[in-house]
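Project outcomes to date are best conveyed with an example. Our students and postdoctoral researchers have been running inverse folding experiments weekly, and each run begins with a structure described purely in C-alpha cells. The record below, which covers 177 residues, was selected by the lab manager from last quarter's runs and is presented without edits.
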C-alpha cells in the first residue's frame, strides 16, 4: 500500500520544465495518461489512452477538449498541469480514490477552466464532501453537473441550493443516496 502511494506521488509530480518545453496540452496529456486517465483532443472523436501512442507533430497542435479520469490515480499534487489548458469543455472524475475537496477547489479556481469547462461528472469519489461540491460554484460557465454515489455529501439539500443559486443556468443531475 505504501509503495503505491509513493508511486502515485511520483506520477503526479509536476515537471514545470516539461510544460515549458512541450506546451501545456502535451504535458497534461502525458501526466493524465501516466495516471491512467484518457484524453480527447479537439476535432477528434477518439479517446487517447496509450501513452506511447501520443500523437506527434507540431507542438501545440493537439488541444485537450475532454478528460476521462475514471479509475485513474490523479491527485491534487498534479493539478498544476491543468493551469494552461484552454479548451477543456468536459471532465469526468469517476472512482478516483485520490480526488478530495481540495482537488475540486483547485479545479474551480483554475482560470482557464472557469472559462472553458461546460460539463463535469463526479461519480463514486468517496473523499468528496459538500465542501468540495460547493467550491464548484466558481465554474461560472458550467452547463451540466452530474453527481452520483458520493457518500461524503451529507447535506444534499443545502449543497444543491447553494450551487443552484450560484449557477442558475446549470443543469444539475443527482444520483445521491
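After processing, the design step wrote out the following sequence:
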Amino acid at each position: 500500500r505504501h509503495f503505491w502511494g509513493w508511486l502515485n506521488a511520483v506520477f503526479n509530480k509536476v515537471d514545470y520544465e516539461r510544460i515549458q518545453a512541450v506546451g501545456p496540452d502535451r504535458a497534461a496529456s502525458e501526466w493524465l495518461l501516466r495516471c491512467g486517465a484518457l484524453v480527447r483532443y479537439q476535432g477528434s472523436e477518439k479517446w487517447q489512452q496509450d501513452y506511447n501512442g501520443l500523437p506527434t507533430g507540431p507542438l501545440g497542435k493537439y488541444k485537450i477538449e475532454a478528460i476521462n479520469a475514471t479509475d485513474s490515480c490523479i491527485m491534487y499534487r498534479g493539478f498544476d498541469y491543468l493551469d494552461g489548458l484552454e479548451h477543456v469543455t468536459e471532465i469526468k472524475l469517476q472512482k478516483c480514490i485520490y480526488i478530495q475537496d481540495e482537488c475540486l477547489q483547485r479545479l474551480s479556481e483554475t482560470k482557464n477552466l472557469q472559462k472553458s469547462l461546460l460539463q463535469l461528472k463526479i461519480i463514486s469519489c468517496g473523499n468528496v464532501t459538500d465542501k468540495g461540491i460547493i467550491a464548484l460554484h466558481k465554474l461560472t460557465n458550467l452547463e451540466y453537473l452530474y453527481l452520483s454515489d458520493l457518500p461524503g455529501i451529507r447535506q444534499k439539500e443545502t449543497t444543491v441550493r447553494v450551487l443552484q443559486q450560484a449557477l442558475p443556468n446549470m443543469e444539475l443531475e443527482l444520483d445521491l443516496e
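The longest helix spans residues 24-34. The chain has a mean pLDDT of 93. The training component of this project remains on track.
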